[in-house]
């Protein structure tokens, strides 16, 4: 039950991001639910490899390169989901930042 609640809350967060940030559009709630699954899959399968490969750059930038990784993975997930449109890097950066903050709030509410 807790997993379904988190899934719905993250989908609502994605709808909110689409409403808040210009350059990100969410067609409907079903697209947001699928985007949530896509983000989860990208974070499970692709993120560890990308973070391992970019470890030296991340070390040199004192962890700030993680923002770039988050942004690119957010754009990648949005690319595969029909009904989600992310126009550029800046929109994806703001979207991934807002989703990270909302993710912390959602995790604290459902813990």
Structural description of this entry:
23% of the residues are buried. The chain is mainly alpha-helical and 111 residues long. The protein has one domain. The two termini are 12 Å apart. The chain is built from six helices and two strands; from the N terminus they run αβααααβα. The chain has helices at 2-20, 29-45, 47-53, 55-60, 65-80, 89-110; strands spanning 24-26, 84-86. Helix content is 78%, strand content 5%.
Biggest sheet character: 2 strands, antiparallel
Low-pLDDT windows of residues = none
Total domain modules? 1
Average pLDDT score:
96
Strand content: 5-15%
Keywords:
two-stranded antiparallel sheet; 111 residues; mainly alpha; single chain; 2 strands
Report a brief summary of the structure.
The protein has helices at about 1-20, 30-45, 45-55, 55-60, 65-80, 90-110; strands at about 25, 85. With about 110 residues, it is mainly alpha-helical.
């Amino acid at each position: 039950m807790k997993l379904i609640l988190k899934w719905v809350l993250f989908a609502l967060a994605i709808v909110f991001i689409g409403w808040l940030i210009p350059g990100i559009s969410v067609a409907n709630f079903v697209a947001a639910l699928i985007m949530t699954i896509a983000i989860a899959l990208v974070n499970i399968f692709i993120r560890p490899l990308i973070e391992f490969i970019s470890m030296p750059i991340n070390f040199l930038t004192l962890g700030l390169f993680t923002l770039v990784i988050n942004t690119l993975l957010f754009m990648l997930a949005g690319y595969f989901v029909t009904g989600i449109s992310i126009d550029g890097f800046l929109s994806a950066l703001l979207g991934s930042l807002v989703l990270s903050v909302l993710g912390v709030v959602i995790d604290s509410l459902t813990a």
